[in-house]
Amino acid sequence: MKLYLDSSALIKRYIHETGSEKVLNLCSKADQLILSVLCVPEAVSTFCRLKRQRHLTEDVYQLLKKDLEEDLQEALIVKMEEEIIEKSVECLEKQPLSTLDSIHLATALFQKCDLFLSADIQQRKAAQAMGLKVEAV
């Protein structure tokens, strides 16, 4: 199974919250994890925000960042190629999406993912409308 995680789903691999167990379970069953290049700065941004809010210590922040870097070695990181930008525009014209959500959706469509994971309700609705199999996390 080709599994696409948007940033909201990816974060659940590192920060225990509602949906984390489901993400970990689906990731363990996937043949391939697919991420947009956007996931890296978005994940680190979340870790930094949690550190600034004192929900993470510096040591935990460094550990999470290291875990993310190791996991990225196993995943397919998709760069923003011209086809993805074009598909993103198409998604924006057809669905009420933010710019970044449209890029995640376009990446999943471009890679012909079997399953799209997201915690974002609007993004999931758009992904489903665009023909992807979707699960909430």
Structural write-up:
- The chain is α/β, with parallel strands linked by helices and 137 residues long.
- It has one domain: Rossmann fold, CATH 3.40.50.
- Helices cover 58% and strands 14% of the residues.
- The chain contains seven helices and five strands, in the order E-H-H-E-H-H-E-H-H-E-H-E.
- The protein has helices at residues 7-11, 20-29, 39-52, 58-74, 82-94, 99-110, 121-129; strands at residues 2-5, 32-36, 76-78, 115-118, 134-136.
- Strands 3-2-1-4-5 form a five-stranded parallel beta sheet, sandwiched between helices.
- Helix 7 (121-129) links the parallel strand 4 (115-118) and strand 5.
- Helix 3 runs antiparallel to helix 4 (58-74) and helix 5 (82-94) crosses helix 6 (99-110).
- The longest helix has 17 residues, at 58-74.
- The radius of gyration is 15 Å and the shape is globular.
- The mean pLDDT is 97.
Name of the CATH architecture: 3-Layer(aba) Sandwich
* Stretches with pLDDT under 50, minimum 5 residues: none
Mean pLDDT: 97
- Total helices: the number is 7
Q: Note the main sheet.
A: 5 strands, parallel
Q: How many discrete structural domains? A: 1
Q: What would the principal axes of the Cα set say about the shape?
A: globular
Share of residues in helices: 55-70%
User: What is the top-level CATH class?
Assistant: Alpha Beta
Q: Can you tell me the CATH topology?
A: Rossmann fold
Rg over C-alpha atoms, rounded to the nearest angstrom = 15 Å
